[in-house]
């Protein structure tokens, strides 16, 4: 198949989908994209107006050794992490996905609001059926955001097995342009040697009594160093695996776009002798704040500016893994040989090829399993916090057991189970009322019937009744973090007088500490069906999720494209 053809698309949009009303014919080239994450990223040039960026992603199993241990990896275009996708603010992005995995697949565009295109959000059973093996599907959406994002599978454990990559959206008017000379992307991840086709059935079985499986290693930008003496017999393992190395020039400044793409682990990142100045959090610019160490939970992103002002030498990049979930001897891989201190190298141009001898910053234990202190992070441009709260939900997070004995996760005593062959958004469009959905759909419904839905808001009290910390994500929205309770201190509802309405940080993933409450608030301006879930993949598989059904009286008039609904016909076939 020739994926490099020039495609001509005629996009016919129903007038009911006013958010992306567009009737046009346009020619553009679809790129078989590849990228080298260790080379400075070339930002896209500004254009006179929005353009279409078209990428081809072929999903293929490829034998790779990210940490030295060779195993099949679920890749996009044969790369792990997947290739870096780029667009400018206002551009339309078209991604042709050719599924050659041998398994169904989906892709979620993490942090994209998908206004008017809820059906391209990606989570299976919520906004689409899975893409069958040996089939093609096209995601097509307009981006009116800026910042650092990523894409990943939302089908079973495929994200854990490798289907994930960066997504960078540029703003030609970014006020930080000119404050740095070059850009890099850096991903942090955990890694398992056994594929989830083995791990998930054991983890989900009625007889399993352990906790979330322990990874075998950690990685910086897809590279780690596993102790090959610990591998099973007849395995292939390279004890001299490459080390993640970023080259900088003395006297230059670098923007590092950092993404935690893990399934389970939290990181604390630092680079010896180089404080990091945060300028962006989860796609929102913030006023600069300089820290020596940065805690970053699953799915969170930070842009930082690094000043290469030290002596020409090699300096250690340190990504410290912190345990935020329980482990016992019944847990899969509890005796893992994982190295909790993952390392890379910041290499000055001209430095000798020798290991770094730099000293680490002090590791602050208060940063373990938590976010950067929200009081440090202030939006670059003041954002008005909506005052018209049209719905308030309390989400009590817990663990429990099904009648069969299988471990499950619960929100308000209900464990989420997706309808893989009949997505919830299709049900709403088909006329099924939200109150007719199953308890296992975990639906929470609200309507914006005012003229100004940007000022209409939804408030969620996330009440963590477990001893784990949980990184919670809302699809289709970012949110104000009004209150981020401390560990073991305030599981009871906080008072409004304790909320930050003046200048709260805006995120799309927030860490809810053990036995505490976090309060988030977002604008109810995006009709659709949006998943709300813990981003620990093992907890999501246990059912730690709910569905936010936003303005169904409006959304029910949506015309879901025929190629999206056709996936379900193929799935049932």
UniProtKB/TrEMBL annotation:
Ranges of residues in domain Plastocyanin-like: 64-173, 183-329, 455-552
Signal peptide: 1-18
InterPro entries linked: Cu-oxidase-like_N, Cu-oxidase_2nd, Cu-oxidase_C, Cu-oxidase_fam, Cu_oxidase_CS, Cu_oxidase_Cu_BS, Cupredoxin
PROSITE patterns named in the record: MULTICOPPER_OXIDASE1, MULTICOPPER_OXIDASE2
Family, similarity comment: Belongs to the multicopper oxidase family.
Annotated protein name in UniProt: Extracellular dihydrogeodin oxidase/laccase
Gene3D superfamilies given in the database record: Cupredoxins - blue copper proteins
Pfam families listed in its UniProt record: Cu-oxidase, Cu-oxidase_2, Cu-oxidase_3
UniProt keyword Cell membrane, yes or no: no
Stored PANTHER family: LACCASE, MULTI-COPPER OXIDASE
Record key words, sorted: Copper, Metal-binding, Oxidoreductase, Signal
Gene Ontology molecular function, alphabetical: copper ion binding; oxidoreductase activity
Protein origin, superkingdom: Eukaryota
Keyword Oxidoreductase attributed: yes
